[in-house]
C-alpha cells in the first residue's frame, strides 16, 4: 500500500513535516516534497497543466491514500496547499482526489493544534470527492510537542496518530 504524505508547510523546520516524519516511523509512508514547485492555479492551463502539476497529479493518483498535515495560517489552510488541491481537483472529470482516502492532521504552536485549518481542509477535500477519515488529530503547542529525536512527547497523541493511520489504511483497503 502506498500512503503519500503531504505537508502544507514550506518551512524547512516545519512542525507539520515533523509530524509526517513521526507517522512514517509508524507505517510505510512516502513524503512528497514538491509543494513549493507547484505554480498558481490557472483555469487557462487546467487541460494542459505545467510539468510540476502533472508530476503531483501522477504521485497522488498512484497513491492508495493520502496523509495531509496542515499548519494554521490566519485561521485557515496555507495558500500553497489550497493551490495544490485546486490543481488536483481540476478538470473535474479527472479529479485525482475523487474517492481517495485522506487523513488530515494538524500541528500548531497554539493551544488548538491547527483545528480551524483542519476543518477547512476537510471541507475542501469533501467537496473534491475525497473520502476523509473521521478521526482527528490536533497537536497543540508544537514547540514542545516533539522531543530532541523528533518523536511526540505525549503518549496519548502518539496513540491517536497510530489509530488514525490504522483508520486510513483500513479505508484504503475497502473498494470504492
From TrEMBL:
It comes from the Bacteria. InterPro entries: Flavoprotein-like_sf, FMN_Rdtase-like_dom, NAD(P)H-dep_reductase. Residues 1-137 form the NADPH-dependent FMN reductase-like domain. Pfam families: FMN_red. PANTHER family: CHROMATE REDUCTASE (PTHR30543), NAD(P)H-DEPENDENT FMN REDUCTASE LOT6 (PTHR30543:SF21). This is Chromate reductase. It comes from Kibdelosporangium banguiense.
